[in-house]
Specification:
By secondary structure, this protein is of the alpha/beta class. It is 42% helix and 11% strand. It contains 12 helices and 7 strands. A 7-stranded mixed sheet has the order 3-4-2-5-1-6-7, sandwiched between helices.
């Protein structure tokens, strides 16, 4: 089973867009995929996949209720299937995520008065195990906010692996220099081993300075299976139409553009790289960037 968290401590690196499209690439290859976003802000992965219509409803069951052991139904009842062509499952985000830290601390205090233990950083892992997700899914992807806190710590505890998008700018270079310390500090803080499956330079424009940043990432020993060019029009279109890049190119472009198909191919190659890291062989991998793969043939 492949589990990982898309994370960068620097904001604006495109981690949510990357997580969503690589999840689609896993599903395109015939794998069963669950995405668990944990961002309390609007304009998140739930919005991208158009499953956030209930995020402000205080009565609806949601992930936070399950994290504190007070779900009103089965965890599996939270699942929404999106991207009808490939069938990705998503746990929609809810506004209660804004108060996740407080909810976990209150529950821990109540359990302590009863002499019970309630580690606040491992509750997502508990939920995954109790729901026996390993029986139904080949891949689980988590997308927490960039800031340190209970969302991030629960995501990493549950997945144990990182996919790190890197912004190829001066700000991003500072983040690159601290990648090793970042992982070591998280391991020490959480008391677990964390694997970095890949570091992905994103929104690259091909300048010499940016190429130097890519070289620096590789020099640190991190795998860089793909470098994703700056494709603002394509990826902004995904958010506008609330769909994956594959769906956007297929359904919302009047013609196929080679440079956009190249970006889709990189999402596919990245997915194969991540799968290989844990020994998963996808049953039906597409030719990278083939947007018709796995879809029903249309009568001429």
């Amino acid at each position: 089973m492949l589990t990982y968290t898309s994370y960068s401590e620097a904001g604006g690196t495109g981690k949510t867009t990357l997580a969503a499209n690589v999840a689609v690439s896993h599903a395109r290859a015939g794998l069963d995929v669950l995405v668990v976003p944990l961002d309390p802000q609007d304009g998140d992965l739930s919005y991208l996949f158009d499953v956030d219509e209930q995020r402000a409803d205080p009565a609806v069951d949601n992930l936070v209720r399950h994290l504190v052991g007070r779900g009103s139904g089965s965890f599996r009842d939270l699942v929404r299937t999106v991207d009808s062509e490939y069938g990705i499952d998503v746990i929609p985000e809810h506004n209660m995520l804004e108060r996740l830290g407080d909810a976990l601390r209150r529950e821990a205090d109540q359990r302590e008065t009863l002499g019970e233990s309630f580690p606040t950083r491992t509750q997502l892992l508990r939920v995954f195990r109790e729901a026996a997700l390993n029986e139904d899914y080949d891949v689980i992807v988590s997308d927490p906010p960039a800031t340190a806190g209970p969302h991030l710590y629960n995501a990493i505890h549950a997945t144990r692996n990182l996919l790190i998008p890197v912004e190829p700018t001066g700000k991003g270079q500072a983040a690159v220099s601290g990648l090793e310390d970042l992982v070591e500090n998280l391991e020490e803080d959480l008391g677990i081993e964390i694997g970095v499956l890949a570091a992905v330079p994103n929104r690259v424009k091909g300048t010499r300075d940016q190429e130097a940043i890519v070289d620096e990432i590789e020099a640190l020993g991190f795998d860089v299976p793909v470098v994703i060019r700056d494709r603002a029009s394509l990826l902004e279109g995904c958010w506008r139409q609330q769909c994956s890049a594959f769906t956007y190119v297929r359904e919302h472009r009047s013609r196929e553009r080679d440079y956009e198909l190249d970006t889709l191919a990189k999402f596919d190659r990245l997915a194969r790289h991540l799968e290989a890291q844990v020994g998963i062989e996808a049953p039906d991998p597409p030719e990278p960037g083939d947007i018709q793969h796995g879809l029903p043939e249309v009568e001429p």
